[in-house]
Amino acid sequence: MTFMSFVVATYGRRSEVERLLASLEVAYGRGYEVIVVDQNPDERLVGPCTRRWRFPLQRLRCAPGVGRARNVGREAAVGDWSVFLDDDCRVPEDYPVAMRHALEQSVTGVVLGGWHDERGRRLARLDREPGSVDAANQWRRVSEANMAVHHSVGIGFDVRLGPGSGTPFTAHEGNDFVLAALAAGYPVLYRPDVCVLHDLPPDGGSVSARRTYSYGMGLGYVLTKHETPLRERLSALVRPLCGAMCATTRGETGRMLAYTASFRGRLRGMWAGGRLFRCGGHR
Fold first, then answer.
1. For residue 203, what is the DSSP state?
2. What is this structure's pTM?
3. Through-space distance between the first and last CA atoms of the chain, rounded to whole angstroms
4. CB of 257 within 8 A of CB of 213?
């Protein structure tokens, strides 16, 4: 019986995928399979995916788009739970056992795990304490790098969001999925103690303005798509403006440009969502 199906959507990477598979090999335990959803136009993953691993492995192909790839992987999964992992993460040796224990406690719905880098550093914005997830606190609890979804959850990822989607909304597909699951009445649990290993993203001073703009567009779109309260949308616009002003006073040009691009992206994403200043939504 297969309890967990690890689904890895990947594009443009080989060594990272091989490293993830190797970490799953070390952590191997019974009751799981691995599904690699390959969005590459070439055959770079033939070697890693045809190697003899201790776990069952499927390699599927689909057009680019992380949401589309995750949906394809989940549809092919035979496990009770589909566990979505970033293609550039690794799993510690105790991860499958820890995740299985968390899922057995949850029974159904969605379980959000945590992550840290090799030195134990965590993303500052994420909560440290476990608990239930709602529409307000999910912004501090969702990480696409480590997310489990029960087979009974009858929604999919929005293919218009995330890397490779062909739209300007290149981030926050995980928040979108969780908000949709909550709206449909599925329970969502946060377990930051069940961690994968993932490098921390670069700080604001070394992220390109183009990237922060596209991430901002994703956030703005998701905020309006789910009709979040007006105060949350306004707060999402004020924060990068304040950051840009602080960076300007300190002479940090790179950070100022990144914060400004984030503001512009969030505003444009909200406008694209069509409900920039419409009141209502989750309370």
1. P
2. 0.92
3. 41
4. no
Look up tokens 């608990």; give the residue: 131
Which is nearest to 77 in space by CA: 149, 12, 17, 25?
149
How far apart CA 35 and CA 85 sit, in angstroms, is: 10
Q: How many Å apart are CA 263 and CA 37, to the nearest integer?
A: 33
Within 8 A by CB and 6+ apart from 149, the residues are 74, 81, 82, 84, 110, 177, 181
**How far is Cα of residue 146 from the mean position of the Cα atoms in its chain?**
7
Give me the numbers of helices (H) and strands (E) for the chain, helices first please.
8, 8
Burial classification of residue 251, based on how many CB atoms lie within 10 Å of its CB (0-12 exposed, 13-18 middle, 19 or more buried) = exposed
C-alpha–C-alpha distance, residues 234 and 212, integer Å: 18
Label the pairing between strands 57-61 and 131-132: unpaired
Residue 278 has pLDDT above 60, yes or no: no
**pLDDT value, residue 15:** 97
In a 3-state reduction of DSSP, which class is residue 208?
A: coil
Percent of the chain with pLDDT strictly greater than 70:
94
